Amino acid sequence: MFKQMETDSLEQLHFFSDPSTELRAIVAIHNTQRGPALGGCRFIPYSTTNEAITDAIRLAKGMSYKAALAGLPFGGGKAVIIQPDTIKDRHALMRSFGQSIHSMNGQYITAMDSGTLVDDMDDIAQQTNFVSCTRHMGDPSPATARGVLAGIRANLKYTTGSDILKGRHIAIQGLGHVGLSLATQLHNAGSHLTVTDIDDNKMLLARQQLNADICSPEEIYGINCDVFSPCGLGAVINSETISRLRCGSIAGSANNQLEAPEMGLQLKQRNILYAPDYVINSGGLMFVAMRYQQLTDVAISNKIAGIFDTLSDIYLDAKQDNRVISDIADQRALEIIQQSGPNQFQAA
Ligand code: NAD
Question: Quick check: 344 pLDDT over 90?
């Protein structure tokens, strides 16, 4: 376990157990150099404890990088609660998790992630203030979608010289909380949409309300379009799909879009611009972090609009140094963390 922590430069790993509520939780704190660690809590089944630990560590590191490139005064952390076979009392379990979080004295602030709901955050909030995404803070998905829209404009600017959305053809995979909001914004801006989802009703709605063309989940990869926007699952850019892509660039909200890091190089070789997922989908984190800080909606919107410049700068660097875009993003994030000076959280 120590080896795993050292490999990923993890600061802390916490375990919480409460047999009375069946709570088994792991909190990984990757870095608090820039501030307290902020990151969601997963509540999903894991086949082994090691799998849960690995998930928490990997995700916590990603959050540090995301917060750094987003210019937020937060570090990266992530929690996983191992979902029991049957959940006896979800409210009690979440309140117990809230007490665990509270015992960490603000080093980690939790939020929603796969398997957790706004109701869970409200339960946690009964025990601690170190929680975001509660009902009164609101849903981050529209903010994520606004960030993806800024990213799509950055991609268009770089690949075509103009960031005008009108008349562009965008293919969206997944019409969930983010995908549908993005599709609506693009439709309003005059873009032509091709969309897919495994849920036929969502596709039909998009066809009726947004005049979108629809296709099967498999066909979306081969759509000849300006931008392919993965807003459903991870690992969709993989050895099987990459050769089918007919897009000028990729810009979507899904986490971990590249199945393996070498996909970044293959996209570069195929001259397909790729917006690193943790940069383009950081609008949600900006919303969550800045709502937690009680900053204004105008400040949040300005921050989200900045995703255009962040991506454009990364693309210029990558072009200048002839390097893979995701490598440049990682390097920049690491430099920002390392240059943050003394540990901001511990100093406070
Ligand atoms: P969601 O669950 O609301 O939507 C996902 C959609 O993808 C669903 O409509 C689902 O039916 C569809 N889908 C699943 N498999 C599919 C497939 N094979 N082909 C086509 N469609 C498929 O999730 P969301 O909140 O909209 O998030 C979408 C992605 O963005 C996720 O990867 C998430 O981790 C990431 N993300 C979301 C946020 C946010 O604020 N919600 C922030 C950052 C990253």
Answer: no
Residue 252's CATH number: 3.40.50.720
Average pLDDT, the chain: 95
Query: Residue 255 in contact with residue 277, Cβ under 8 Å?
Result: yes
Q: Are residues 29 and 156 located together in one domain of the fold?
A: no
| Best residue among 38, 253, 259 to mutate for probing ligand 1, ranked by most atoms within 8 Å of CB | 253
Q: Which atom of ligand 1 is closest in space to residue 179's alpha carbon?
A: 26
Ligand 1 centroid, distance to 215 Cα (angstroms): 17
Identify the band that residue 340 occupies on the pLDDT scale cut at 50, 70 and 90. Answer: confident
Quote the domain boundaries for residue 226. 141-328
Active-site positions? 78
pLDDT value for 346: 59
Going by alpha carbons, the residue nearest to atom 9 of ligand 1 is 176
Task: Give 15-63 pLDDT, tens digit per residue.
Answer: 999 999 999 999 999 999 999 999 999 999 999 999 999 999 999 999 9
Strands ordered across the beta sheet of 37-44 = 12-18, 23-31, 75-82, 37-44, 108-112
We report the CATH number of the domain holding residue 118 as 3.40.50.10860
116 shares its domain with 179: no
Neighbours of 327 (CB within 10 A): 18
Other CB atoms within 10 Å distance of the CB of residue 196:
26
In a domain, 341, yes or no: no
In this model, does residue 79 exceed pLDDT 80?
yes
Please check whether residues 302 and 156 belong to one and the same domain.
yes
- With a Cβ cut-off of 6 Å, ligand 1 is lined by 140-141, 144, 173-179, 196-199, 202, 217, 231-234, 253-255, 281, 284
For residues 219 and 147, membership in a common domain is answered with yes
Task: Give yes or no: residues 149 and 114 share one domain.
Answer: no
> Residue 192 CB: number of other CB atoms within 10 A?
17
CA of 179 to the centre of ligand 1 (A): 7
Is residue 196 in a domain?
yes
φ, ψ for residue 166, nearest 5 deg: -60, 130
Do 320 and 172 fall into the same domain?
yes
